[in-house]
Amino acid sequence: MKKKKIIIPLLLLLAVAIYFMVFHKDKNLRYIHKNADAVVLIDSKKLTGQYLFNVAIHPSKWMGNKTKRKSFISLKDAGIRIPDFLQIFHIKDTKLTEWYSVLELKDSQKFIAFLKQEQFTDKGNNLFQKEQVFFMIKGSHCIAGTSEHAFESINEQLLQKSENSVRDADQFIQSSLGSISFISGQKIQNFSIELNHDEIEIKNNSNPDVFNSIISKLQKDKHFLQAELDKENIKNFARFFNKSLVDSSRITSLKGIADLEQVNDTIISYGYDDNFNEIEQKTFQKITQPNYAIDIQSTDPVRTWAYFQSQKWINGENQFTVIPFQPNEISQNSNGVVIKSTQKLLTLSPSFKENYILIRNNALLFSSLKTLNTTEKRIISEFEYVLYANHSQDYWVKIKAKTGDLPLILRW
């Protein structure tokens, strides 16, 4: 009887502890910038639970890495307070590549030691940089970003500590592992992020039937890149580069394909012989270049051509200069304009009347990505393809990895 009296309270305490460790979450988002137009949330507790579950069912990962140095400072011991929801945001009117986050620090000195261990450069004034990743320590907070341009603006908001800037996580995320949300005034459009065994999905609709149909149609061809977009999708992508593109050029649709090819490139330089006579020197290197064909449909091909010329996208040799890869040729027809590489001609297949962009992995891709380190190349090599698809108001992005014994969450 006494044992029962002890066991029951212990079970209750265990249940309460599990609730606060796994299920209870602080949904107050204090660090999203007031001018943010896009927000990515990651449910840290759900990610941790998913990781531990996968470790539990894969015995090969139980022992961990025996060769890890004792001096190695893991992220959880780096003086950072891991939030229930990691908040990453993009600020309106900044570059597409500029994303930021704010973290709370438990111990700033431990975090600085972690950054030095990871070979970040100390640029002074508590600013650290490694390639395109920046960290700035401001008291008990750390501002992270792919740029340092907005750090002062973010810090000013931190100092204000206004309750009006606190958002509720339920505005952006429901039960998914993560979410990406686009903010326009009071309107918020949410997309869930799910990490499955061998794929990452970003979507705003749980019904995959339409998108699986698109995948099945695309399996017939094996091009490195395939794309087909209507006017609205072109307009959405054009916002990142030229907001007036579609309306000004009268473009209604686009279809394109591309393949990668490795070719010999001749480099000509000049030197001098022993008598100081100039001599031509030739060296050869292998480069990767795409062969492609793009068909752009328009309601007014003459106006489309004139718009491209006004933007100086067509040179005197009728080459489309926006595409920097090898010589190409742009021509006008009764339906629009066609852009083709001249090295090897590709033929476009009939239209599927769908909206998609499919990029397949290709071994030749790595030869053109010289800035990537070994780890980054290994991660990219894990993936088979990236697919964007749209049908009506439903959007879907799938990042498909190669089939493996371990789930994605344990491969990195």
Task: Tell me what the structure shows.
The strands form 2 sheets. This protein has a 19-stranded antiparallel sheet that branches. The protein has a two-stranded antiparallel sheet with strand order 1-10. It is of the alpha+beta class. Strand 8 and strand 9 form a beta hairpin. It is built from 10 helices and 21 strands. It is globular.
What can be said about the biggest beta sheet?
19 strands, antiparallel
Distance between the termini: 50 Å
Helix content: 10-25%
* Global Rg: 26 Å
Shape: globular
Classification by helices and strands = alpha+beta
Low-confidence stretches: 67-71
Summed up, the helix count is 10
Number-wise, the strands total 21
* Mean pLDDT rating: 85
Q: Hey, roughly how much beta strand do the residues contain?
A: 35-45%
Name some characteristics of this structure.
alpha+beta; 24% helix; 412 residues; 36% strand; 19-stranded antiparallel sheet; two-stranded antiparallel ribbon
Quick structural gist:
The protein is α+β, with helices and mostly antiparallel strands and 412 residues long. It is 24% helix and 36% strand.
Describe the secondary-structure layout.
Elements: H1 2-23, E1 28-29, E2 36-43, H2 44-56, E3 80-81, E4 85-91, E5 100-105, H3 108-117, E6 121-122, E7 127-130, E8 133-138, E9 141-145, H4 151-160, E10 167-168, E11 178-184, E12 187-195, E13 199-203, H5 209-218, E14 225-230, H6 231-238, H7 245-249, E15 251-272, E16 278-298, H8 301-310, E17 328-332, E18 336-341, E19 355-360, H9 374-381, E20 383-391, E21 394-401, H10 408-411
Antiparallel strand pairs: 1-10, 2-4, 2-11, 3-5, 4-5, 5-9, 6-7, 7-8, 8-9, 11-12, 12-13, 13-21, 14-15, 14-19, 15-16, 16-18, 17-18, 19-20, 20-21
